[in-house]
Amino acid sequence: DAKTTQPPSMDCAEGRAANLPCNHSTISGNEYVYWYRQIHSQGPQYIIHGLKNNETNEMASLIITEDRKSSTLILPHATLRDTAVYYCIVRASNDYKLSFGAGTTVTVRA
Amino acid sequence: EAGVVQSPRYKIIEKKQPVAFWCNPISGHNTLYWYLQNLGQGPELLIRYENEEAVDDSQLPKDRFSAERLKGVDSTLKIQPAELGDSAVYLCASSRDRMNTEAFFGQGTRLTVV
């Protein structure tokens, strides 16, 4: 019952910015947007989350549209080690559960 | 700081045999999760613990699956008997508490039932 829609796959060039889109048109006011990624043979790893303001950390930036119906995760300088499945997840502030969809398989090419 | 530790990393068993997976969460993390991940899909929650109490096991197939978290630290997930369809990756995760924003995942146990 994932509440998000992501493209199944995308390629990007090493050293370039990778922009990963996510649609969450039914998001509620108390729901945050989370991003996790899963590198092959590893468990998911937290990247970033936000409510309505744009967020940035050492890994990525999260841009949320004003109507909050979509967002974009930006990896500013993609490296080969960023090749992974990226999950966009909507989670209420009082909810402990992470509901993963199929995610976007991102392949960074040299 | 050590991350979430799971063992074994890989397990191959014959159908109808029992199997158990072990998880050691990050020290001080009260909330522990078990997730199931089928090939090509995202993880799905099986059970959540708050300390030693299973507070959400609605997705756990209770006819063959069981879990415990004695003393509110380590946890064990068991399948008895295993079926071919149980082949998947079993992931353990922990967070400081139920409202903590970040969950930390282990590397998972890849189960193959033959």
How big is the Rg of chain A? 13 Å
Order of helices and strands of chain B: EEEEEEEEEEE
> What is the helix content of chain B?
under 10%
The backbone outline of chain A, from C-alpha atoms, is: globular
- Are there runs of chain A of 5+ residues with pLDDT below 50, and where? none
Counting helices, strands and paired strands, the structural category of chain B is mainly beta
- Major sheet description of chain B: 7 strands, mixed
Largest interface: A-B, 22 and 23 residues
Percent helix among the residues of chain A?
under 10%
Strand order of the largest sheet of chain A: 1-9-8-3-4
Dominant shape of chain B: globular
Order of helices and strands of chain A: EEEEEEEEE
**Portion in strands of chain A:** over 45%
Number of helices of chain A: 0
Major sheet attributes of chain A: 5 strands, mixed
End-to-end C-alpha gap of chain A: 36 Å
Instruction: Specify the structural class of chain A.
Output: mainly beta
Overall pLDDT score of chain A:
94
- Give the N-to-C terminal Cα separation of chain B: 37 Å
Overall mean confidence score, pLDDT of chain B: 94
Fold blueprint:
The complex is a heterodimer of chains A (110) and B (114).
Chain A (H helix, E strand, L loop, with lengths): L8 E5 L4 E6 L7 E8 L6 E6 L4 E2 L4 E4 L5 E6 L8 E9 L11 E6 L1
Parallel strand pairs in A: 1-9
Antiparallel strand pairs in A: 2-7, 3-4, 3-8, 5-6, 6-7, 8-9
Chain B lengths: L4 E3 L2 E4 L5 E6 L6 E7 L6 E7 L2 E4 L8 E4 L6 E5 L8 E8 L8 E2 L3 E5 L1
Parallel strand pairs in B: 2-11
Antiparallel strand pairs in B: 1-3, 3-8, 4-5, 4-9, 5-6, 7-8, 9-10, 9-11
Describe this structure in words.
The complex is a heterodimer of chains A (110) and B (114). With 110 residues, chain A is mainly beta. Chain A has strands spanning 9-13, 18-23, 31-38, 45-50, 55-56, 61-64, 70-75, 84-92, 104-109. Chain A is 0% helix and 47% strand. By secondary structure, chain B is an all-beta fold. In chain B, the strands form two sheets. In chain B, strands 2, 4, 5, 6, 9, 10 and 11 form a seven-stranded mixed sheet that branches. In chain B, strands 1-3-8-7 form a four-stranded antiparallel sheet, with no helix packed on it. Chain B is globular. Classes of the chains: A mainly beta (110), B mainly beta (114). The interface between A and B is medium-sized, with 22 and 23 residues.
